[in-house]
UniProtKB/TrEMBL annotation:
Belongs to the leucine-binding protein family. Residues 29-369 form the Leucine-binding protein domain. Residues 1-19 form the signal peptide. InterPro entries: Leu-bd (IPR028081), Leu_Ile_Val-bd (IPR000709), Peripla_BP_I (IPR028082). This is ABC transporter substrate-binding protein. It comes from Paraburkholderia elongata. GO terms for biological process: amino acid transport. The lineage of its organism: Bacteria, Pseudomonadati, Pseudomonadota, Betaproteobacteria, Burkholderiales.
Length: 382
């Protein structure tokens, strides 16, 4: 009996050793998220974070596996405070934490220096908000984004103002950040290509609150459109001061003005403001509307602006991991270059630089205190 019991125990041990580990605890896989979670644009950072988290929630509900083993994806969240120096520090922390990829950063001024850190560690980086062309011009094979860059969007905006709005005398203001100045440069290029008349270009900084001296100068030159290269809160203050000075000019932006914060600050003065945003007309897409409902149910707030782009960045990262069937950083980078997935904001496929192929842009206008989509140009289908 003892010998048979011993044989049975050994047989059971062998069977257990070779049995599938269906009940095994899943391996925790870290995906980094980094954005401005404190400071003036913290609301944007949280919007991005929640978009990425919702994508991970959806994925984990499917009980995913990689390489035949169960995994659970978690978000390693870091705050770069919209400060390039802090961005480099938290980028290194994410690398040291062992993340297999990173969703972020938001500000181009943070993404560009941080991308070097990720490049040296072969960590895939997908930014859902940085649009400065210089980010992907560096030639790093690990850097991608989920919205069109300013080299395209700014030029499209320049053509639009001249050809569609029929502006005769155009003024430009930029905030001298990597984002604002780069966007204004691209807009100026597009406007000149369309034979537009740029009568003046002024600049401020991203901390300024009083633009009356600049606006007085532009008013004296009879501008009918002012293009602003900068972020939404300053844009809202700018349009209020334009109206207080009795300026009839239209304020036009590209990828920076459309937000709830702009509407709250600008109030009635913002009526008629136009902004050309990366992405499709999300306010008219059933998939985006359903996303908004799920987002609010999960986080008890409405989508601010960028959450769908963060969701899609995370979706692309997860697709690349599954296509590679590996958690190896280099294999994920290689897989991302070939990824093909349709998300909330449209089809995500990349050119050799990590930029979207045929990114869409949508013109929005403030009508009766709400941003309304007017027209979409470009895009490869949603």
């Amino acid at each position: 009996m003892k010998r048979r019991s011993l044989f049975a125990a050994l047989a059971l041990s062998v069977l257990c050793a070779h049995a599938p580990s269906y009940g095994a605890e899943p391996e925790v896989v870290k995906i980094g998220f980094v954005g401005p979670l404190t400071g003036p644009v913290a609301r944007v950072g949280k919007d991005l974070q929640y978009g990425a988290q919702l994508a991970l929630d959806d994925e984990n509900a499917k009980h995913p596996t990689v390489g035949g083993k169960p995994v659970k994806f978690v978000l390693d969240v870091q705050d770069d405070q919209a400060d390039p120096r802090v961005a480099i520090q938290v980028a290194q922390k994410l690398v040291d934490d062992g993340v297999v990829g990173v969703i972020g950063h938001y500000n181009s001024g943070c993404s560009i220096p941080a991308s070097t850190v990720y490049h040296q560690a072969n960590v895939a980086m997908i930014t859902p908000g940085s649009t400065n062309p210089q980010l992907t011009k560096q030639g790093f094979k690990n850097v991608f984004r989920t919205m069109g860059h300013d080299g395209v969007g700014g030029v499209v905006a320049g053509h639009f103002v001249v050809e569609q709005i029929k502006a005769k005398r155009i003024g430009i203001i930029d905030d001298r950040t990597a984002f604002g100045q780069g966007l204004a440069d691209a807009f100026e290029k597009g406007a000149k290509e369309a034979k537009g008349n740029i009568v003046d270009r002024e600049f401020t900084n991203d901390k300024a609150v009083d633009f009356r001296a600049i606006l007085t100068t532009l008013k004296s030159k009879n501008v009918d459109v002012i293009f602003f290269g900068g972020l939404d809160e300053q844009g809202a203050m700018l349009v209020k001061q334009m109206r207080s000075l009795g300026m009839p000019a239209l304020l036009f932006g590209a990828g920076a003005l459309k937000s709830n914060a702009f509407l709250q600050i600008a109030g009635p003065a913002g009526e008629g403001t136009q902004d050309l945003e990366p992405g499709p007309a999300l306010d008219k897409l059933p998939a985006a509307q359903e996303f908004g409902k799920r987002y609010k149910a999960r986080f008890n707030q409405d989508v601010e602006l960028y959450a769908p782009f963060a969701y899609d960045a995370t979706l692309a990262m997860l697709k690349a991991i599954h296509d590679a069937n590996s958690l190896d950083r280099q294999k994920i980078v290689d897989s991302l270059a070939k990824v093909n997935v349709t998300g909330i904001t449209g089809k995500i496929t990349y050119d050799p630089y990590g930029d979207l192929i045929k990114p869409p842009y949508t013109l929005f206008e403030v009508q009766q205190g709400q941003w309304k989509s007017i027209k979409t140009v470009g895009g490869s289908g949603v």
